[in-house]
Amino acid sequence: MAQASDDKLKKIVSHAKEYGFVFPSSEIYDGLSATYDYGQLGASLKNNIKSYWWKAMVQMNENIVGIDAAIFMHPKTWKASGHVDAFNDPLIDNKDSKKRYRADVLLEEHMEKIRQKIKKEVTKAAKRFGGSFEEAMFIQTNPRVVKYNEQIKMIEDRMRTYLENSDLVALKQLIEELGIVCPISGSKNWTDVRQFNLMFSTELGSVADDSSKIYLRPETAQGIFVNYLNVQKTGRMKLPFGIAQIGKAFRNEIIARQFIFRMREFEQMEMQFFVKPGTELEWYENWKSKRIAWHKALGFSDDKYRFHDHIKLAHYANAAADIEFDFPMGFKELEGIHSRTDFDLSAHEELSGKKLQYFDPETNESYVPYVVETSIGLDRMFLAVMSEAYDEETLEDNSQRVVLRIPAFLAPIKAAVLPLTKKDGLPDKAREIINGLKFDYDLQYDEKDSIGKRYRRQDAIGTPFCITVDHQTLEDNTVTIRHRDSMEQERVAIDTLHSLLQEKVSLTSVLKQLEA
Ligand code: ATP
After folding, report:
1. Of 68, 211, 324, 491, which is most buried by a Cβ count within 10 Å?
2. Beta-carbon neighbour count of residue 149 at 10 Å?
3. Do β-strands 443-445 and 415-419 pair in parallel, antiparallel, or remain unpaired?
4. Which 8-state DSSP code applies to residue 132?
5. Ligand 1 atom, smallest distance to 253 CA
6. How remote is the CA of residue 103 from the centroid of ligand 1, in Å?
7. Can you tell me the distance from the alpha carbon of 369 to that of 374, in angstroms, rounded to the nearest whole number?
8. Which fold has domain 401-515?
9. DSSP letters along 189-231, please?
């Protein structure tokens, strides 16, 4: 199983490179670890994902507006937010493999293994009992499953306590007690657990002293908080309202592996929703369901997603959950939804000495709003789409094709226009079709190689439609249109192409589905 998933990730990495989606950064110098560049098709897919998020969040919601704040911020920002003092990961090294791990991730993975054992027991029992099987009852009463669940609870409780108290010694003891081994070396030869700050710093201006030290933002959220009042006043926003932003964030991740899942420079799509204190948990639930609906509208199977409620709440949160996606490496965080209370605005008020309050015209009171945040990594979303879309298919004639089943509205190229031959005026006709459609759709022209090979090339980059121009086209202005997923072909009139594409590849229908 682990082997197969590893293989799948490797295949995606090499496919992404081969077809111009993602390249290792500065590859001619052998790359820079955990840094990647998006190629011609990757940039386009990324833009389409951004557009889906921005439209769903900003354009579709009257009370959400978008901003674009600077990456550099006043250093006090990060003092107020807690990042200078508390943006640490508890790290532990394996002395044999020399690999570094996050202590909490090792424990989480250990618990996941126990959960898998429970799942196996349930599947086995379901088979044995057939129709009369009652899963809930089985989980409550089967001694082995009960024991597993008790183990998970024990680990969760102890981990939470130790993390909350920053008790690094106890954290190490727990890892040792559970006999957790390094996945690479298989050994239990661990160092002590240490804290490591994840922010990158640099100097502003030419003189390097302490007062000029600034940070590359580790999250985009603070750019929203410091602008909260600017936006509220100039936009005449009334609570509840949201501010959205897409932008780069930087973290000196220690364990930067798994392709674009964990990078040192990455992009976030964040929205801070400002609400009346006391209503935040209602809004938190509301955003949880809105965000999962946004993911599910992509059409991937529902069992690819699950919520994970946080055990250890971040210093600013009173409720938090992750939307986890079943990546090739297993279920991992894709998006966080956090009820951040008034932590950030209050901290900025205190450190800046500026009031960041909202005057509520209904109650004639002023207060610091509470905040519910939705925060998704664009690169992780990209990886989720790529890993779900990637498919190797054996066809009826036993030949193989690699097809990226990217949801059509996200596909980098919406249609390829292919003249059957390079002669007889077919290329000119194909160009004419492109000229009619290119204002609204990303298209590709390809006349090289056999039509079969050209179809394969388009399958491999996820193009939903291939439009083929043949001799009949010159006579009756019809073309064949081939569907990527079913490989079915139909003959349609050229003047229906625009509306056909509109119906099949537009973001509008997906946004309408979200409204429904
Ligand atoms: P993790 O626990 O995986 O490190 P996190 O809880 O620190 O993530 P948040 O601070 O909640 O992450 O950031 C919000 C989102 O930003 C995450 O859900 C993830 O999609 C994305 N993200 C965070 N760190 C990275 C990274 N190093 N590379 C790519 N995306 C990231």
Report:
1. 324
2. 16
3. parallel
4. G
5. 27
6. 16
7. 16
8. Rossmann fold (3.40.50)
9. -B---EEEE---EEESSS--SGGGEEEB-S-SHHHHHTTHHHH
pTM of the model as a whole: 0.84
What are the strands, taking DSSP E only, across 32-76?
A: 36-38, 64-67
Radius of gyration of the chain (CA): 26
Please name the helix (run of DSSP H) or strand (run of DSSP E) that holds residue 490, with its range, or none.
Answer: strand 489-493
Domains in the chain: boundaries: 2-72+216-387, 88-197, 401-515
Q: Is 89 in the pocket of ligand 1 (CB under 6 A)?
A: no
Q: What residue spans of 184-342 are helical by DSSP H?
A: 221-225, 228-234, 280-296
| Diameter of the chain measured on Cα atoms | 80
pLDDT digits over 44-89, tens only? 999 999 999 999 999 999 999 999 999 999 999 999 998 988 888 8
Residue 70 to residue 105: CA distance in whole angstroms: 32
The predicted structure's pLDDT at residue 1:
39
Distance 377 CA to ligand 1 centre (A): 6
What top-level class would CATH report for the domain 2-72+216-387?
alpha beta
Closest CA to 297 of 37, 18, 55: 55
Ligand 1 contact via 271 beta carbon (within 6 Å): no
| Amino acid letter for position 341 | T
Same fold, 2-72+216-387 and 401-515: no
Cβ count near 138 (within 10 Å): 15
Q: What pLDDT, in 10s, does the model give residues 295-305?
A: 999 999 999 99
* % of residues, the chain, pLDDT over 70: 97
Distance CA 51, CA 294 (A): 13
Candidate from 87, 260, 265, 266 with most ligand 1 atoms within 8 A of CB, to mutate: 266
Looking at the predicted structure, is the pLDDT value of residue 36 above 70? yes
